[in-house]
Amino acid sequence: HTPYFTSIIQIVCINIYITSCNISCCNIKNNFLSDIYHVLPKIWITITILLLAYNLFMYINFLSREKKYFCKVYNKEIDFIISNICNILGLNKVDYKFSDSITTPMVVGLFKKSIILPSDITSIENYDMVLKHEIVHIKNKDIECKFLFVLNFEL
Questions:
Q1: Rounded distance, CA 129 to CA 87, Å?
Q2: Is there a contact between 121 and 127 (Cβ–Cβ < 8 Å)?
């Protein structure tokens, strides 16, 4: 059997199928498109779920990896600065922790927010401005906005 002969057999089989099902060529196109329209949303939902799971996994992995380095140490000066900034901005007192593994301050937590500070934060000039910057992230709900942005991007 040559490829040419196989092609002819396939064409004949398709013609027999079309004739036996009493379907026109336009309906075959519509059925194909209809099948694609049913499959594409399933593929899209699957990819969306996989991306959400990946981002959630990466965030949880980051927190679990870094949490062992977080240390809650009371620092009178930092506590005073944070309390003053929170009072000025109308926020409840914000929790803070120190870490040897980070070099820049960050805010973590979607529900219970904490400011994570590098252990050598007091050596930074104007570190009170750094603390204010991090607290403003909390006041502006930047973590929630980032979460919604990632969710929106993946949808």
A1: 15
A2: yes
